[in-house]
Amino acid sequence: MPTTAIVSGLVLGGTYALIAMGLTLQYGISRIMNLAYGETIIFFAFAAFLLYSAFGINPIAGLVLLLPLAFAFGYLVYGVMMQPLVRRSARSGNLEVDSILATFGLLFVIQGVMLVFFGSNYTSYNYLNVGVNVLGATIAANRLLAFGLAVLIGGVLYLALTRTRWGTTIRAVAVAPQSAPLVGIDVNRTARFAFALGTMLAASGGVMISMYQTFTVSMGVIFTMKALVVVIMGGLGNLLGALVAGLLLGLVETFVATYIDPGLTLAATYLIFLSVLLWRPAGLFGKATR
Amino acid sequence: MVRALLAVIFFAGALAALAWLPTQFGAYGVGLLLGMTGYVTLASAWALFSGPTRYVSLATVAFFGIGAYTVAVLSETLPYPLILLVAAAVGLCVALVVGLATLRLAGVYFVIFTFGLAELIRQLVTWYEVNITGTLGRYIFLPISGEQIYWQLLALAAVTIGLGWWIGRSRIGLALKVIGDDEVVAAHVGINIARVKLALFAVSATIITLVGAIQAPRWTYVEPSIVFNPTISFLTLIMALLGGANRLWGPLLGAVPLFLLFEWLSANFPNHYSIILGLLFIAIVFVMPQGVLAMVERGWSRVGQRGRKAEPAGTEAAQ
Amino acid sequence: MTALIEITGLRKQFGGLTAVDDVSFVVAEGEIVALLGPNGSGKTTVLNMISGALAPTSGAIRLAGEEIAGLGPHRIAHKGVARTFQLVRILPSLTVGENVMAALAFRHPPVWGGAAEARVETLLEEIGLGGRGAERADNLTYIDQKRMELARALAAEPRLLLLDEWLSGLNPTELQVGIELILSLRRSGMTVLLVEHIMEAVRALCSRAVVMNAGRTIADGPTEAVLADADVIRAYLGEDHA
Fold it and tell me: Per the confidence metrics, is the pTM higher than 0.80?
């Protein structure tokens, strides 16, 4: 049934769009290419699992508890790890490579910590696992809820970035990091804030994923890749682009899984990634290549 | 001339001594030597391309795995030397395709792509094995001893470092230095940047594929999650960076101590292995991003400069 | 005189901005021609399109009758075009000698090994950097970096040399040396197209000048006549002075 594939594709795409927004904030504004992004997602998926299975806290309440924690975590990581690199790169101009290497190390640290605490097994829990009829397609309620949350969080973020003074500050840094200080913007503080905000989005993505999918400690790489594919498809730093591209990726994956082979979804992701890189490196909605 | 000859004699002597070493150790020692030589080769091959171009490749294990898997698939149908040739050819082809597709792009895209490449190939191989051949794992029964693998790796390591030495003195070496400094200038003096990068990437990837192929008989049992283990990419990178990816002997200098350290860590702290690895890696990126050798050299030149500082100023005043 | 470089209907658009609009001019073999115009008039963009750093949106660039528009910079370099950059581009981690060597090693046909080392030394000598080949390029003073950049361009033995404000930033004595250097290039038969703001140098060097304003050519002719042209004065100094 195509409607089932379309609806469940869009629902999955909602999560992708949300996590891609976080990554695009981190790369577009903080200029950090965070390879440990997927590990952050998985970490918070485990946190939600722990809260639910050990303390009986449902994922929605868990989200409320975990988001501030994620923000603090991102704020700390940027302050401790990234700031020295940013300072150093003022001379060497190596921030991109340095941040990739440092976060590559961080990836192993987070993964190692998770291995110690949670082991390497597939994990999942049962929450709102009942079918709901949407336009003739049956979708699990937990997926719908995740989609609703993604729309809510993404929408609030988008409005905040486009309608508030604070959002304008952030966008100014994204567009012109050199000129922003001239109008009195503290670039460093903004970058740190954006990084923390990105971590928060990763955490919310993790909690959502934990609600409807099995996950393992070693899955982070896949989510980083998916988020990156969406970010590049949508154009680096382009929030709306990330949203559309995220939904698109969800659709493509669901269609490949339904009609071709579930084992080939990642291959399909890569195919899209390569195609976009080759034909539209500035993203599907980007302006002409610079 | 005499100095070059002496260097060659020294190099050959050192190589002979290294080749003789396994006779002095038991099976465990040979295994250690073998693994160490493998990583020396991997790190040196990685640095051939990534050192001068500053394109960080995270795809080491993709090629390593391709090599190992080719051996696993063909071990019963072809004679061993031919298998190695086929493996090298497969690695070369994949490298050319990946390189053509991604090397024209900005460095960050290249990193991202290579980051996922190993995962992609692993998934494709898994899918193929499960759906087409119906088995996930494969056995390799080849009559090749640990010593023989070690000697092959030693030869490959010597070739790799020799190649690095030759490139450093050739036009292509100069081209790489120019590209590393300023691609715009490089193109305007007539360097075909895409071709130089592609050639280097292909050579480096082929050597890495061969390391995987040569080491494959050690495992006996092979499945995608073993040979496409991302830790291999990670270790290679950290070793090359520690020693200094821009120096001929840098990767070797990084690989030997780190390999021994990792062996010790995985024996004594199996559960916290990857945490320690990650922290160590971050520390290297922070403390010596150019590697140990560059740091030592900078220290030396600082000492030397104190004496020379006055000279250029003097010539300028005379003009 | 035969035309070495022939530009017809050249256009370059960046998104909605047309930086170069329907520019046509010819530089003959052995000529030194100035490309003038106020800041932002598109001179450097024209140079970038000739050297291959940018691909034109439309139009033709012929080098000795051969179309080169849209080729990559390394291919255009192999056809005999060399250049310097508006903001000096040195290779900072290389020595002065290696900076020049880079151009020798990758031209067609390449010069390499002992022959290249000898040639580097001669070039550095000619340009006033004799015996300083072993110094690191980023330790050079500004003027010496400019010298080195010129030596690198000359090492390619180009048929056409593009100089982008190579004389700017020099003091009066250095300027005289610089002008003398370019004159010696003309005597050797090299064709030069230069972008320059120093009128003294333009008058001393160039037989002909092409003037651009807002992406279009507004004058093309003998230097003295062009510099006296009312349109040119208006473009440089504004309405009141015309």
Answer: yes
Q: Where are the beta strands (DSSP E) in B74-199?
A: 138-139
Query: Per the CB < 8 Å rule, is B120 touching A84?
Result: no
Q: Contact, C33 vs C192, CB < 8 A?
A: yes
Q: Tell me the residue range of the domain where B187 lies.
A: 25-287
Contact call for residues B136 and B224 (beta carbons, < 8 A): yes
Pair of tokens at residue B58: 């995270």
Nearest to B111 among A100, A273, A281 (CB): A100
CB C227 within 8 A of CB C199: yes
| CA distances in angstroms from B82 to B42, B86, B216, C175, listed in the order given | 22, 6, 15, 67
Distance CA C4, CA C2 (A): 6
Q: Does residue B139 sit within a domain?
A: yes
Peptide bond into A281 cis (omega under 30): no
Interval C52-104: pLDDT, tens = 999 999 999 999 989 999 899 999 999 999 999 988 899 988 899 999 999 99
Q: Tell me the CA distances in angstroms from A58 to A16, A45, A125, one per residue in order.
A: 22, 13, 11
Q: Which of B105, B127, B275 sits opposite A113 (nearest CB)?
A: B275
Q: CA-CA distance, A181 to A166, in Å (whole number)?
A: 15
User: Do B108 and B240 share a domain, yes or no?
Assistant: yes
Among A200, A272, A187, CA closest to A25? A200
Provide the H-helix boundaries in B189-289: 193-215, 224-227, 231-243, 250-268, 273-287
* B-chain residue closest to C149, CA distance: B185
- A107 neighbourhood in chain B, CB within 8 Å: 278
Q: Which domain holds residue A111?
A: 2-221
C3-80+160-241: in CATH 3.20.20.10: no
Residue A270: what are its φ and ψ, rounded to 5°? -65, -40
Three-class SS state of A240: helix
pLDDT at B305: 56
DSSP C204-222: HH-SEEEEEETTEEEEEEE
In this prediction the ipTM stands at: 0.88
Total residues found in chain C within this entry = 242
With residues binned 3-state (H G I as helix, E B as strand, rest as coil), the percentages for chain B, rounded to 5, are 80, 0, 20
Q: Which of A111, C23, C104, C208 is nearest to B234 (CA)?
A: A111
Say yes or no: B141 and B254 in one domain.
Answer: yes
The full length of chain B comes to 319
Q: Are residues B181 and B302 in the same domain?
A: no
